Amino acid sequence: MxxxxxxxxxxxxxxxxxxRGARFELLExxxxxxLLLSVSPCKNDTVRILIDEMEPIKARYRVPDVITGxxxxxx
Length: 75
Known about the structure:
Layout: E1 9-18, E2 21-28, E3 33-42, E4 46-53
Antiparallel strand pairs: 1-2, 2-3, 3-4
């Protein structure tokens, strides 16, 4: 079984840098679907990466007990 061969481009003009990390949009050229990629540095050489739909059909379910509380990000 083979999945779809999707390739996304980073839209660097949407790049936003903050004290808590960076975020920018990704675009799949064939379907014009946009995703939001967020990268946050954390303690102990850990990086948190989140990818969400820009315009979701419905709200994404997030498991509540995976990460409890806010991550301690490096400054």
